[in-house]
Design a protein that fits this description.
The protein has a three-stranded antiparallel β-sheet, sandwiched between helices. About 5% of the residues have low confidence. It has one domain. It has eight helices and three strands, in the order H-H-H-H-H-H-H-E-H-E-E. Helix 4 packs across helix 6, helix 5 packs antiparallel against helix 6 and helix 5 runs parallel beside helix 7. It is mainly alpha-helical. The longest helix has about 40 residues. The chain binds zinc ion. The site of zinc ion (ZN) has 6 residues, from loops. Zinc ion binds next to loops.
């Protein structure tokens, strides 16, 4: 019954280098798609904010509603749902390739819904923070009679900071989403433990480098110095979980 990959995984389970070749790939295409989408979205937000600088500083001050409205009209929710579906497909495909079993993630639509909600929540809260800071900048500019060029410079800086924060959300959430769907797909076919693999480069944090090659139970994640986490759950973590395939003797 055992597939070639399955036998290989068993035969080389102590061989980390071989395991590394079987590890799930980084969600690079998804990360780039999300990043591009955020750039486009932020350009629209920038345009709304830049409209605020002019002769009448109080004329078109951006509000939380304006940000929420932009979120809606840019259909970021549709994009995120699609991205969640693709991350889920990746997780299922990977597990299916390794185990040669059909994979169905229970309550998949709800998990994707959670992914969308979490992303929208993070971006909304970033937007609200921006609106607060921008409002203060415009208020002070109005009171002090500051030149609009200087106000524009301040707004530009805040927009740059906001955009890099939004890009960080996109990167981190893509990694987290990929890790979640990888885990759920593996658990869906009865995988209970995994080997923790880092990306083995200089950006791997020390606490994760220590976990490289170790085996953990899905029911008992290790302490990563930031609570107990599976691979991909700490912020910007690029580590992955390679499933330990249960023995199918007698099947
Ligand atoms: Zn890591």
């Amino acid at each position: 019954m055992a597939s070639a990959l399955y036998s290989k995984l068993r035969r080389t389970s102590r061989d980390i280098a071989a395991l590394r070749r079987l590890a799930p790939k980084q969600p690079r295409a998804e990360r780039i798609r999300y990043s591009n989408r955020i750039s486009a979205f932020w350009q629209m937000w920038r345009a709304i904010v830049e409209d605020s600088v002019g002769i009448r500083l109080d004329a078109k001050r951006p509000t939380k509603n304006a940000f929420a409205e932009l979120l809606k009209t840019s259909r970021l929710n549709v994009f995120l749902k699609n991205l969640g579906q693709d991350l889920s497909s990746r997780g299922k495909k990977y597990t299916s390739k390794i185990t040669r079993l059909p994979v169905r993630i229970p309550n998949e639509d709800f998990v994707i819904g959670d992914f969308v909600d979490e992303n929208l929540k993070l971006i909304t809260s970033l937007g609200n923070e921006q609106v607060g800071i921008i409002s203060t900048i415009l208020e002070l500019a109005l009171q002090s009679g500051q030149r609009s060029e200087d106000t524009a410079k301040e707004l530009n800086h805040i927009l740059d900071v906001g955009e890099s924060h939004a890009q960080l959300i996109a990167r981190d959430q893509t990694l987290k989403g990929a890790a979640t769907f990888n885990r759920l797909a593996q658990q869906a076919v009865g995988v209970e433990s995994y080997t923790w693999l880092t990306s083995k480069d200089e950006r791997v944090r020390e606490s994760h480098a220590d976990l490289d090659g170790q085996t953990f139970q899905y029911s008992d994640p290790p302490d990563t110095g930031n609570g107990r986490n599976h691979p991909g759950e700490d912020i910007q973590c690029r580590c992955v979980a390679v499933p330990i395939i249960p023995l199918f003797e007698g099947i």
